[in-house]
Amino acid sequence: MPRDTITPADEQQIMAAIQEAETNTSGEIRVHIESNCEGDVLDRATEVFAELNMHHTKLRNGVLFYVALEDHQFAVLGDAGINAIVPDHFWEDITAEVIKHFKQKKYAAGLAKGVLMAGEQLKAHFPYNERGDINELSDDISFGD
C-alpha cells in the first residue's frame, strides 16, 4: 500500500512543494501514487490524468507526477498546452532528478524537487495572473490501490 511508504509528513512535504510551485504560475500540478502499474507507465499515467480531470484546466497546463511504488514506475505527464512550449528535454530532466532521489528511497524529496522544477518552467510559460487565477485542481495527493 502506498500509504505504508508515504508518511503523513511526506505527504505534507509534497503538498507544500505543489503549493509553492503553483504560487507563481497558473499551471496545475497533481501527484498520484499507487502500488502497481499494469501495462505501460505512460498509458497508465494518461488514464490517471483523465480520471483526475486534469485536461479540464482552462489553459491545458496541468502536470501529473505518477508513481507506482512497488513496480518502480514513474512518469511525469503534461497537458497539450505545456507540451507545445516546453523544451524537448524538460520531462527527461525532471524524471532523471526524481529517479535519482527514488533510488535512495527518498520518495517525498524526489517528488518535491520534481514538482518545484516543473513549477519553474510553468512560471516561465504560464505566469500567475492575480486577476482571476484560481486553483483549478486539488493540491492533495491522490492514492490508488
Descriptive account of the structure:
By secondary structure, the chain is an alpha/beta fold. It has helices at residues 2-5, 8-22, 41-51, 80-83, 90-102, 107-125; strands at 28-34, 62-68, 73-78, 142-143. The protein has a 4-stranded mixed sheet with strand order 3-2-1-4, with helices on both faces. α2 runs parallel beside α6 and α5 (90-102) packs antiparallel against α6 (107-125). This is TLP18.3, Psb32 and MOLO-1 founding protein of phosphatase. Residues 4-119 form the TPM domain.
Summarize the structure.
Pfam families: TPM_phosphatase (PF04536). The protein has 145 residues and is α/β, with parallel strands linked by helices.
Percent of residues in helices comes to: 40-55%
Counting helices, strands and paired strands, the structural category is alpha/beta
Low-confidence stretches: none
Total count of helical runs of at least 4 residues: 6
**How many E-type strands?**
4
Name of the CATH first level = Alpha Beta
CATH architecture group name? Roll
Pfam families: TPM_phosphatase (PF04536)
Domain TPM: 4-119
Protein name: TLP18.3, Psb32 and MOLO-1 founding protein of phosphatase
Organism: Pontibacter ummariensis
What's the layout of helices and strands?
Blueprint: H1 2-5, H2 8-22, E1 28-34, H3 41-51, E2 62-68, E3 73-78, H4 80-83, H5 90-102, H6 107-125, E4 142-143
Parallel strand pairs: 1-2, 1-4
Antiparallel strand pairs: 2-3
Helix pairs in contact: 2-6, 5-6
